[in-house]
Structures are given as C-alpha cells and as structure tokens.
Amino acid sequence: MLFTRDFSAVSEVLTPDFTDHFAPPWDPPGRDGVAHRFAQAAHALTTRRVEVLTSVCEADILAQAILLHFEHTGEFMGLPPTGRTFTIGGSNTFRFRAGRIAEHWGVFDVAKIPDLLAPAPGREGGWASMWDTDAPPGSGGRP
C-alpha cells in the first residue's frame, strides 16, 4: 500500500471491526481512518523504504521496531515540498484474528519532521523550538 498508493487493500488486511489505537480522534474510525491517514501521508510523503529492525511474535501479537524512509514530495505540516529524504523511527504492534489485523498500536517520531525538513537548523518549529540551543553544556538545554 505504501509504495503503490492503492489503499483498497485496507479492507483485505484489516478486520471489519478493526481498532486503531494510534488514530487521532478526528480521523474516521476503523478501516476508513487507516485509508484516510495513508492517503494524507501519500499526498505529501513518498515512501522510499520500510526497514524492519526487529520483529517479535507471540500468540496473536506481532510487535515491530521500524524505520520509515521518505521523500518530501508535497505540502506537509505547512511546509512546501522540499524533495529532501529523511528517516523516522517507530514501532507497530498488531493483534491478528483469522489471518487479518484486528488491532493496531503505534508510536512514530513525527514531531521531528519539521526539523528534518527545515532549510537550516534553528529554533522554529518541531523539537528545536523546545530547547534553548544557547544553553551551557550540561544544563539540559531547557529554557
């Protein structure tokens, strides 16, 4: 799905009563929300590679640590396309039922994307705006 941008597969791989614990509250619930989020991301980010660092499977649960490699090809978080490539880390945990995904939990480092796409390192937006870059070493850089 990430590479082909064909999100019709969502209904094939997710159960009809799928629950996404990662979904923001304003997204449609269930499978529709997943298709919506994937389509929004695909509008702005071209997936170049999904790198699975580790997978652990026990009973009906699969947990993965992953790296997502993107190219910024459309407006994202208010930033016009830059053509830059970047990588963010994350984790997915899936619960399966009858060979399909019934539940998903996820954590991804999306807060640092504005910093990765900024023209130069700075204090505007993303993580950089949270830290005092002029703080003395050892102070933790907090304002």
TrEMBL record:
<dbReference type="InterPro" id="IPR032710">
    <property type="entry name" value="NTF2-like_dom_sf"/>
</dbReference>
<dbReference type="InterPro" id="IPR009959">
    <property type="entry name" value="Cyclase_SnoaL-like"/>
</dbReference>
<protein>
    <submittedName>
        <fullName>Ester cyclase</fullName>
    </submittedName>
</protein>
<dbReference type="Pfam" id="PF07366">
    <property type="entry name" value="SnoaL"/>
</dbReference>
